């Protein structure tokens, strides 16, 4: 039996005071978020206003798609910008931080927002082709990502307030954001067979953008987070909470006041051979042409070289594909 790792200490943040008219309560919330992010790159967010049944409906539609025969799923593979279905062992996320690992043990449905070639000034949801076999997937992903985009911008307003900046300090750059959404299926051990040495459901990495919002299922082969003092620890789970972590661009923007949270997803557990998990992962970033420059001291602690957000994200994304 796989030994259990002690759980990491990740603060729980109730976001509901942000919608109240009490300015003092809003500032206390912002200060709480600041303290939490200075100690860890992760939060558990409650009071977020997401309909309780929405993640489950998205997950059920995703599972209907992933259960389709491989030949059917293959019809939806290899679409624009690697959107659509990505089969197992085609992603090596550890490459993004220079960690050599075997290909990751997951399959993915990937979607994103992009500027429309047919309708200039408008955005569209990629991929263009969605599975006719699961007609509910497209509208559910559209609804879910709309809610996640709103939630991400609310969190960014809280974070800006924590820095004593105007509330739109970050969101003025997210009116046409670059975002990605993945439905990650982590197959069970009886399907994948034993993991190779150093192989994970997702290898160790930090995320690339501003922040990530994760709706996940608990399990033995689940999320772990890393800190320099304690090493790898299981991420705590709370029903209905959204797991939030900041990414590289936010770490750079804050001058490492807030650190990008390093994490991984454990391989399928041999002692739970039928454990299968599905995660809903929303990655939020700013407009691609945004110049991300570190905030100076005393807010920031490190001055990074300015980067163009879209260029940074593209270079990271290119690094993680087994065939790229």
What does this structure look like?
- This protein has helices spanning 23-39, 54-66, 70-73, 137-162, 189-192, 248-253, 309-318; strands at residues 12-14, 42-46, 84-86, 107-115, 123-126, 179-186, 202-205, 211-215, 223-227, 231-234, 242-246, 263-265, 277-284, 291-292, 307-308.
- The protein is α+β, with helices and mostly antiparallel strands.
- It has a single domain, classed as B-lactam Antibiotic, Isopenicillin N Synthase, Chain (Jelly Rolls, Sandwich).
- Strands 1, 2, 3, 4, 5, 6, 8, 11 and 13 form a nine-stranded mixed β-sheet that branches.
- Strand 1 (12-14), helix 1 and strand 2 form a beta-alpha-beta unit.
- Helix 2 (54-66) crosses helix 4 (137-162).
- The longest helix has 26 residues, at 137-162.
- The two termini are 36 Å apart.
Keyword list:
324 residues, alpha+beta, Jelly Rolls, nine-stranded mixed β-sheet, 7 helices, 25% helix
């Amino acid at each position: 039996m796989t030994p259990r790792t002690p759980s990491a200490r990740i603060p729980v943040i109730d976001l509901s005071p942000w919608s109240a008219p009490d300015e003092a309560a809003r500032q206390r919330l912002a200060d709480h978020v600041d303290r939490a992010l200075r100690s860890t790159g992760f939060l558990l967010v409650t009071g977020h206003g997401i309909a309780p049944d929405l993640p489950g409906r998205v997950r059920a539609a995703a599972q209907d798609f992933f259960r389709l025969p491989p030949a059917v799923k293959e019809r939806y593979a290899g679409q624009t910008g690697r959107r659509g279905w990505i089969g197992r062992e085609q992603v090596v996320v550890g490459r993004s931080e220079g960690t050599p690992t075997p290909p990751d043990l997951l399959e993915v449905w990937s979607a994103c927002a992009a500027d429309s070639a047919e309708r200039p000034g408008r955005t569209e949801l990629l991929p263009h082709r969605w599975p006719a076999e699961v007609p509910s997937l497209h509208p559910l992903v559209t609804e879910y990502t709309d809610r996640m985009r709103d939630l991400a911008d609310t969190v960014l307003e809280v974070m800006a307030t924590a820095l004593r900046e105007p509330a739109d300090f970050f969101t003025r750059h997210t009116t046409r954001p670059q975002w990605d959404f993945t439905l990650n299926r982590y197959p069970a051990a009886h399907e994948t067979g034993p993991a190779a040495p150093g192989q994970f459901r997702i290898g160790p990495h930090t995320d690339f953008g501003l922040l990530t919002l994760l709706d996940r299922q608990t399990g033995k082969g689940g999320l772990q987070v890393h800190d320099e003092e304690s090493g790898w620890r299981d991420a705590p789970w709370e029903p209905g909470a959204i797991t939030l972590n900041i990414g590289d661009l936010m770490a750079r923007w804050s001058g490492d006041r807030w650190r990008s949270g390093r994490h991984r997803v454990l391989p399928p557990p041999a002692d739970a051979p039928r454990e299968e998990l599905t995660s809903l992962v929303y990655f939020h970033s700013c407009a691609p042409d945004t110049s991300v420059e570190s905030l100076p001291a005393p807010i920031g602690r490190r001055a990074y070289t300015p980067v163009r957000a879209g260029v940074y994200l593209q270079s990271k994304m290119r690094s993680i594909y087994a065939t790229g």
